[in-house]
Amino acid sequence: MPKVFFKTFGCQMNERDSEQVAQMFVERGFTVTPQADDADVVLMNTCSVRDQAEQKALGSMRHLGKHRKKNPNIVYGMMGCMAQSRGDQLLEEVPHLDLVAGTQKYHRVVDHCVDLMKAKEEAQMDDLRRPIIDVDEEEDSQNTIRDHVAKEHGVTEFVSIMQGCNMKCTFCIVPYTRGPERARPIAEIVDECKRLGDQGVREVTLLGQIVNLYGRHEFPKVDGKSPFVQLLEAVHELDDIKRIRFTSPHPIGYKEDVIEAFTYLPKLVDHVHFPMQSGSDRILKAMHRPYKAQRFIDICDRMKEARPGIAISTDIIVGFPGETEEDYLETRKAVEHVQFDQAFIFRYSKRKDTPAAEMEGQLSERVKEERNQDLLQLVNDIVQRKNSELIGTTQEVLCEGPSRYNKETLTGRTSTNRIVIFDGDAERMAGQLFKVKITESTGYTLYGDPVLQ
Fold it and tell me: Which residue has the higher pLDDT, 339 or 442?
């Protein structure tokens, strides 16, 4: 039985895409192996959001090329955003590469790899291999991400509801690698969630590049509700699905119906990941983010009114071209106001073929790092204070199974997306919602004792 090895870089969307491709390999008789040196096919799903992610992927694929000495017929492939943006250029950077598959071609990867395996067996000579480059657009590709790999404790799963993005922020390469917005039908998404619920999944995370703009071009409003809220309501009706998350929304799509949904859909978790990017109106305009900082803050305040205790996490870029000290302090002030429960802070990184890469006022790495560290310290202080305040309280946790770093303990998440570690029996408790009394906090991780009926 042939074996396939996967390595995934980047966002949750990439993780979900890799899972889809893996399932297609399984259906064709392959075994997914965690060891690259044991594989017949080595695949890497790549990310282009930052240069560091691209360099890691290139370095890793070059390193994995050593396994061809052991298996001359091994097939090497790169998928995803970097494959889409660089195309056949990757063949120059990674000479042993056999396949480059773009973001709309995941459903073609298995066929391409099987064809390459057959060609290698027939040729028996490495210099006769013919790489496959498949990065063209393909209609309805958003509807091909619908299957899941069975997991021992498959408690929580990502569900892709759309592909692409129309916003074209000046720092972002995603609209060029993922293409324009395309939405899947509500009925198909609900059917996928129902199948997951039947398999023991209790929490789904709805994924989209800008998730709350789901279906705005394809589907009409109903009773004043956007297609996204219609989808939330439909998934909420599924008995076996106990929690619903979504990521990532954009302020432009955060209309009143989305906020209102938190007042009457209890399965929506008490957490929203809501990218702010900057607290400076001048920088937001340069980023082509069509909102002002106060609009973002107002949405956060209204979210807290609609769902008291809701946790808000965010993404922030520091050191964007032209960012002054005053601009940075506006961002810092916004963070202090919102009191984010978590923040992913990134130093601005030039991305090829994006407008920001050509802007004047590029900042030094030293300034970027200083602002990054300063903001990181502020966020860490807020998070540690909030988590320490939970000691002695009882929180509802969804048990996801054994802990990542200590299989003798279990892990789960609160509705506010905080990780909790506790003792218990995985076979009995995985997939269950129950109370945990918090006894300790180590910054970002909570520890506690289950309060079982």
Answer: 339
